[in-house]
Specification:
The structure is a homodimer. The first copy, chain A, is mainly alpha-helical. Chain A contains nine helices and no strands. The N terminus of chain A is likely disordered.
Amino acid sequence: MTRSGDFVDVRVQRSKAAVLAQTYELLSAGGIGGVSIDEVSRRSGVSKTTIYRHWPSRAALLVEACSTIGSAPPVPDTGSFGGDLVALTEALAEQLRSARWAAVLPSIVDAAERDPDLAGLHADLHARLMAPFDVVTERARTRGELAADRGPADVTAAVAGPLFYRRWFSREPLDAAFVTRVVEDALGHLGVQDSST
Amino acid sequence: MTRSGDFVDVRVQRSKAAVLAQTYELLSAGGIGGVSIDEVSRRSGVSKTTIYRHWPSRAALLVEACSTIGSAPPVPDTGSFGGDLVALTEALAEQLRSARWAAVLPSIVDAAERDPDLAGLHADLHARLMAPFDVVTERARTRGELAADRGPADVTAAVAGPLFYRRWFSREPLDAAFVTRVVEDALGHLGVQDSST
DNA sequence: GAGAAACAGTACGGTACAGTAGCGTACTGT
DNA sequence: ACAGTACGCTACTGTACCGTACTGTTTCTC
């Protein structure tokens, strides 16, 4: 056993990083279906054998490559629920406009529709994306800023719903005016008086 | 030329029908990626050669098979915008819960994200699904029931957005209470006074 | 510096798929 | 009855993919 505790061979780190980077690249370009081990190997310069040394299967690699998507969005704290929600929604809209993963998500949703493994991935991803909304909403609730019968699930549906709809279904531009209207409407029927103009 | 005008050989009708039926079957089960000509041929009993006699390519077959999705939803006319919208939204929710194509749509959205041909299909489909909302909204507008700065696009985003979000992203059940809340909220901020209780 | 580990390269086997070609048969509309 | 057509069948080309086996080389760790 030359296994010495927690140290990881530099070569392993290098290989894994290169493979994950290229996997993510292919993922953004072609969705889940666009990722093949052969191609990852070709582009990353890491041989296929090595890839299979580090991941037991294509699916495992995909899951790990997706795990970085949509992580650690900042949770704003402007003092009011309204301000927080505006900030979060605009951040989400910006991501939907430009982030690489915005093009990948439909293929994950599709895969989750039938593959149970990928359904787990989808659930994680969804939780990660919506976590800030949950935080902000709970905070508002304890301050009594929110109608009693409305929870985080209602907030995310009211805000993320129209945004997602625009991005993937109607494919109209996510302009600032639309985003503003969505937030204001949401605040309105959530029983919140808008504190900004 | 025995070509006699509009008559179509019975055999052709039979073959095409069988192929389209099985294509749709595979489509619902496995999305776009789940349809292979070999499998369609195997299940339909129609030989691959024949399939290619009627469709120039796999893509053409897919487009035709999808063309029946979400067609001819009834346009209600309850007399008020509120009533119409409730009816339409409940119908949409029911479709999302049970219709076969609800499992297919994500793969179409995904495909549309990169393949221009399929993007056309996606656009058609979207237009077909949302047409009733447009009709109802325009009707309301001419009757002055709607705030001046709100158009059909806003109505569909406000209503279909949260529903789609629930169905595909948060994967929570589309229960009646949720649907009702969505419609009421939408009516509220569209400048409509709810005529029902 | 020695031994272990990770590595690239290559060549597999096996499967699945799109699409094409030729042949002989069965059916249809007139 | 008969020409035209659609058809099934089989076989084939070419590609892409997953995952594994083997060989020899580099490179890290101790």
